[in-house]
Amino acid sequence: MNRSKLKIHVHVTQSKLFPGSFTPAVFLIGTGFVTCEQRYLAVALLTLAVGCSGAIYSGFVVNMVDIVPPFAGILFGISNTVATIPGILAPYAIGVITSDVSVGKEVGERAGSG
């Protein structure tokens, strides 16, 4: 691949990744400013965030096919497995960090039953 084709490829890939990551972030931040009375707006913003995050797949899923076409499925499986490990370990890490906090007691006190 010569330099001009590489520049075009990188630009196209970046232009696909930007809306897929930036736009959902805007909608999720907007959801944080919605009040309880505006629950339909919150659902709409969350739906838009998840819907727009689908645009990112056109950027990174295609990369697996570009890198090693015959082994794209295997590579995608390995990368998804590695990416899942932090999600599995995070609750345990939070449990260790916040081991002295009694969540049930605090929630009960805030609700007025403590």
Shape: flat
Distance from N terminus to C terminus (CA atoms, Å) equals 68 Å
How many domains comprise the coordinates?
2
- Give the rounded overall mean pLDDT: 78
How many beta strands in the DSSP annotation?
A: 0
By helix and strand content, what is the structural category?
mainly alpha
Q: Name the helix and strand elements from N-terminus to C-terminus, one letter apiece.
A: HHHHH
Write up this protein.
The protein is an all-alpha fold and 114 residues long. The chain has two domains: 1-67; 69-114. 79% of the residues lie in helices and 0% in strands. The protein is built from five helices and no strands. It has helices spanning 3-31, 39-53, 57-67, 72-97, 103-111. 2% of the residues are buried.
Keywords:
114 residues, mainly alpha, 5 helices, 79% helix, flat
Question: Which helices and strands appear, and what pairs or packs with what?
Answer:
Layout: H1 3-31, H2 39-53, H3 57-67, H4 72-97, H5 103-111
Compact overview of the structure:
With 114 residues, the protein is mostly helical.
